[in-house]
Every structure is written in structure tokens, then in C-alpha cells.
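Fig. S4 source data, part A: sequence.
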Amino acid sequence: MISHEKLTELYAAMVQCRMIVERTGALAKAGAIPRSWTMDGGNEAALAGMTGDLDRGDVLSAPGSRWVAALAVGVSLEGLLAGSRKGRGGTGTGTRNGAAGISVSEAMKAAKAHKAAKDGRIVLVYLTDPDLTDSAGALVKRMKRAVVDNLPVVFVCHFASRALREEFDAAHRRPKGAPEALAFGMPRITVDAGDVLAVYRVASESIGRARGVRGPTLIECVDHALLFPESAVRDEGSTDPMRVMQEHLGKKKIPADALRKVEGRVRRKVHAALGVIERKRTADR
């Protein structure tokens, strides 16, 4: 059972991601920040769920989602701001998780180092459609190598494109007689990308497996429409991850006032941070 404290923490991470997406989009539209500093929405549940059990010293590689992913796992706003001012596109190294913006190649090196050190640290690699399009071949090779080397890695692939998922699926056809749930010799788990609790449970189990030196796992976060193409078109709000989470928290008797306090706290932090960036950007013109 997920504790009320963890549920609130997951909700706060989702709120933070969505606020950053909305605020950076508005600032970019106004010309206050570059478009490269923004992030597409819709990943709140996946980001919050997959990072919920990461510990200090774990490594997150999210090359195409550095801004939102970094904030989701507790990288300091100060670190992000410093990175932005130096022109690194809003990424920084973490105070809770090491090297949030590193490449997949660097992440694999970190996994080997953690395994050799026997320190219980793990690496989580998060890739979205653009990353998978650009580097699918190299990713497949790294996944196979992670299995051979029994590395403490969790791969999370977030699919929004049916064609890309089919292409990726074809790349890891299982050997004859092998279970469908295995990909490259590692467990392969498919989960609804919009269900933060489902993502969290799967990620928590996979992270624990990696910490126990039981090898890597592949988690496929798939958008609801791709997982359930036969379902009828529903009201947009009925599948909105934030609304679904709010309803769940209500059923768990977590007061609405408590959620509003969380939202207020996150809003103040995000607005203050992006306000600094906006003022800095304006002053540099």
C-alpha cells in the first residue's frame, strides 16, 4: 500500500511538472525565454511515478526532458538556474540525484561504476519519442550490453507514437520459445503512462530489483490511446492524469485543503524560479 505521504509527494511532483510546462510555454510565446527551454506536457504521471523511489546518489538520464525531469526528481532550482545562465539549456547536476542531464552513454558508465562500487545506487534512463527516433539502434545495443553486464539500470521508454512503438517492438523480437515479457533477456513491463500510481508501483519494483543486483528492467510507458485503441472517445478530463490523481487522493481521505497547500507551495517555488530566469534573460538583451 502506498502511504499518504508518498501519494502527496507524487502529486506535488505532478503539479510541479505541469506548472513548469505551462509557465515555460507562456514565457517562450512571449519571447522571454528560448523555445528550447520549454517542455511538452503530458508526461507528468510518468515522470512523477518513475522517479518516486530514486535516492540521493542515483542517476537519472533524461536527455530529451532535462528541465522537467530534473525538477521532478528534486534537482535544486539553484542548480537549474546556474545551468541556464551558462547556456546549457536548463539542465544541472542534482542535489538528490546525480547528473540528471547526462547522456545515455554516460549513464551506462555510471551504472558500471556503481556496480563495481557495490553501493546500491542505480541508473534510470528515460527516453521519449524523439530520443527513440534518433537513437533506437544505439539504445538496443546498450540494453543488450546492460543484460550481459547485469547492470543496475531501469530503462523507461515513453511512447506517444504507435508507429515508433511498433518499430521498437520489432527490434527486440524474442527468441523462439522465450516469454513475451522478456526483451533482450530483461523483464519488459508495459504500463499506462497516464496512471501515476501504476507507473510508481512498476518503477519501485524495478528500482528495487536493480538495487538488489538482479539486473536491468525495461518499462514501456504507453499513452492511454495507444494502449486502449478500441476504447470509445471519452471526455478529456476523465483521462487527465492530474484529475485522476485528485480523485484518488479524495478517496484516500486526503483533504482538498492539503492539496491546495501543496499546489500553492509548488506554484510559489516555480514562479519564483522562472521569474529569476525571465529577469535575467531580459537584462541580457
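Fig. S4 source data, part B ends here. The chain has eleven helices and six strands.
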